[in-house]
Structures are given as C-alpha cells and as structure tokens.
Amino acid sequence: MNIILFGPPGAGKGTQAQLIVKKHNYFQLSTGDLLRNEIKKKTKSGIQIEKIISKGNFVSDEIVNELILQKVNNLKYRDRIIFDGYPRTINQAKNLDKILDHFNEKISLIISLTVSREIIEKRIVGRVTCDKCNLTLNEFFNKKEIELHPCGQEYFIKRKDDKLNTVMSRFDIYEKTTLPLIDFLSTKPNFHKIDGALNIDEISAKIDVFLNV
Question: What pairing do the DSSP bridges indicate for beta strands 191-195 and 156-157?
Fold first, then answer.
C-alpha cells in the first residue's frame, strides 16, 4: 500500500509520516528532505533550489519530478512508500501515476491534514528539528520532550526555511496550487481528510484506522 500525505507547511506531515514508518514499517519519501539534501550537497540544482526556497517559493515540477523518479528507481521495495509533500500539483500527480505504473504500483490511500492559517503561524515560530534523527518538535508545545530527547537537546535546530514570513508565503502558494489537486482527489474513495489541529496521538490514531482496514 502506497500513501500520499497532504498538508500545508507546518501541518505535521513529517511527524505523522515518521510515526507511520515506526509503527507500520513504511518508507518516508519526503520532498523536503530530498530538496534539503541537494542543498547540503551543494549540487548545481541544490544551489538553484536554495535560492527558490529562500524566497518562499516552491521548486519547479521539473526539478521535483526528477528527484522523485531517481529516488523511487533506487528503492528496493516500492509498495510501502509514504509520499510526504508530493504531489503538490495536478502535473506532479500525473507524473507520480506514470512512475508507479512502470512498477505496477498504485496509490492506495490519500490523507489530507487540514490546518488553519492561525494555527500554522503558532507552530512555525517554535518548530525545531533534531539534526541527528530528524525528529520535529515545538519549543512551546514540547519543552519536556526536547529536554529528554535521547539525541540531546543541543541537536535541535531551526530550519533556514522556517522563518514565519517565508513559511506563510509557502502556505499561500500551497493553497493556490495544491488545493485544486486535493479537490480533484477528494472524489476518490481512498481519500480521507483529517483535522490537523488535533494533537499528534489523535491524528495518528485516525490514520491507523485507515492503515489497518
């Protein structure tokens, strides 16, 4: 079963994807991680990607599609993938169908986390990510978890693209480019909408119901 996990920046997609990986033995294919990896490696495309992201814009379909194709081609197992942050547009959705068709695979579950602009603002200001294990927590909501984190709280850093103005610009772009895709996919029987304002455990429990069907 392959999964698409939708949600605006700050909705908690990464956190839920990590929980699915741990509990159900899935592979998380995060567009954000792919892009950040290119930036970290300082590749030609990475330099271009960093300039685009720093302005609060989304990277072009061509760049993202190519990175997704490379990653899927190199995976040993392709029937337990969580597509986190991809597709964002109808064009990307069509590209994903082509990639999966090549391996006789399909998307079995589509989950959309819905969160208001106000809540996203509060989450972004305090969001930090462990540079060692990639766990994402919030300085305001998860103080105890950060203090007791096994890797050490010194590993928690703020992402360069976590500036409030930048993220809210991405939120606006997400609504403009991705909501039409979600509206289109919402007619499918395997599409499910979940309130992203719920706490992490509540959201996870709802996702577990769909995965255990």
Answer: unpaired
pTM reported for the whole predicted model: 0.77
Give the separation between CA 137 and CA 129, rounded to whole angstroms.
6
Domain that holds residue 101: 2-115+173-211
Q: Which CATH number does the domain housing residue 30 bear?
A: 3.40.50.300
> Is residue 30 within 8 Å of 14, Cβ to Cβ?
yes
The total of structural domains in the chain comes to 1
Please check whether residue 191 is in contact with residue 185, taking contact to mean a CB–CB distance below 8 angstroms.
yes
- Residue 133, in any domain of the structure: no
Helix (H, G, I), strand (E, B) or coil at 138: strand
Q: What are phi and psi of 23, to 5 degrees?
A: -85, -30
Whether residue 127 lies inside any domain: the answer is no
Of the candidates 121, 21, 124, the residue with the CA atom closest to the CA atom of residue 77:
21
Query: Band of the pLDDT at 133, cuts 50, 70, 90?
Result: very high
Give a yes or no: residue 33 inside a domain.
Answer: yes
pLDDT of residue 177: 87
Q: Give the span between the Cα atoms of 24 and 18, in whole angstroms.
A: 10
Picking from 159, 161, 162, 127, the residue whose alpha carbon sits closest to that of residue 146 is 127
Q: How confident is the model at residue 32 (pLDDT cuts 50, 70, 90)?
A: confident
Across 8-64, the runs of DSSP E, i.e. the strands, are: 27-30
CA atoms of 98 and 153, how far apart (whole Å): 42
Q: Is residue 44 part of a domain?
A: yes
Lookup result for tokens 């994402």: 136
